Structure formats: structure tokens, C-alpha cells
Amino acid sequence: MRVCLCLLLLLAPASLFAQTKIPMKITIGGSSVGENLYTRDGDQFTSNSTLDLGSIKLASKATGHFKAGKLVDLLVESHTPSGDSTVALAKGKLTVTGRGKTATADWTDTTGALGSNLHPQFFSTTLENAEKEIQANPAVKTLTIPVFLIEAGAMLPLKLTLLQPKNVEMAGKKVMVRRFAAEVAGILLELDLDPEGNVIAEDVPSQ
Questions:
Q1: Element (H, E) at 129
Q2: Quick one: which of 98, 25, 20, 31 has its CA closest to 66?
Q3: Above 90 in pLDDT, residue 95?
Q4: Which of 26, 28, 38, 120 would be 22's cystine partner, CB 3.0–4.6 Å?
Q5: Rounded distance, CA 194 to CA 180, Å?
Q6: What is the model's pTM?
Q7: How far apart are CA 206 and CA 6, in angstroms?
Q8: pLDDT of 49-87, one tens digit each?
Q9: Measured between alpha carbons, how far is 118 from 139 in angstroms, rounded to an integer?
């Protein structure tokens, strides 16, 4: 199964608090099966995703805040065929609820290395940091970085390889994007970043 996610970056009219909206259509073989909308307003963010594969329906909403590039609070509510789940981070306490169980632990974001299967914009900072490290060490082709997967509420290793950049068309203009091959939790991804550091495409060859 191949899932291609194409993004169009929209900037809200200039105001005291500029808002960035990134809507994403989720398609399989050119047919739309879902969508994601990521909104950033200052340090506050909201991300909504839905996916409909007939017998498999997924929905997830993530809200929270960043401070100095680090995640300070978070609420992720997901609805999947295996049941509902929530991940909550507040005042250094992480609470994960799912399948009738709740687990709580102390956790603080100290690196800004985040990721998400349903909310791909959370990979952006991780990819930019990985690119800088690879470029600073030409002998390094692949990095493995611990990332906080927001809908799982867990740290997992993310394997990243920097690919050759490519030109894509966005809003009628040719844009050079940076490309990464990634693997997390056994899932293979190909992720593209635009010059502003936004994830503009995620390709999932197997899901």
C-alpha cells in the first residue's frame, strides 16, 4: 500500500499573532482517503487528522504548546479500530490511556525531537536537526535519533537517511525540497521538507 500526502502551505493574513495553516490531503493511488490540518499560532498548535480505508477508520487530534522549540504540554485524542486512546502531557507528567489501562510517568522534552504517524508536521524539527548533523559529518549517511512519538506517548528510535533533494511544484512555483528516508516502529517513510522547514510530503510505502 502506498500513501502519498501532499501539502499546500497557507499563511493567514498578517496580524499581531500570525497564524500558519498547513492542510494535507491523504491519498492512495490518487484517491483521497483522509486529511490533516496543522495550525500553528505563536507557540500554540492544533493538528487534526482523519483516515478512512473502508473497514479501517482513524481519527486523531493533537493540541498543545511549545516553548523555545520544546514541547511543554500536549493532548492527543485518537480513535482507532482497536479503541480510543489519549496521551496527555502537563507540568512534566505524561499520562497514556488506552485499552482500559492508564500509565503515568515523569517526562520533559529536552531535545525537541518529535514525530507522529498521523501528524507528520511534528517531524519537522527532527529532520532539520538531522540534516545539520549529517552535513557536518560527511562520513555519516544515516542517523538513529530517539524521538517522542506523540500519539504513542513513547520514545522510539527513528532511523534517518538524507536523500537527494528534488524540485516539486507548489502553488505554481518550483521549490527545491529536502528528502529523507525514515523508519520508526517498523514503518518506512519518505519525508520532504520545504525551504521554510515544513513537512510538505510524506510517502508511506507500507502501513
A1: helix 124-136
A2: 20
A3: yes
A4: 38
A5: 12
A6: 0.84
A7: 17
A8: 998 988 899 999 999 999 999 999 999 999 999 899 999
A9: 32
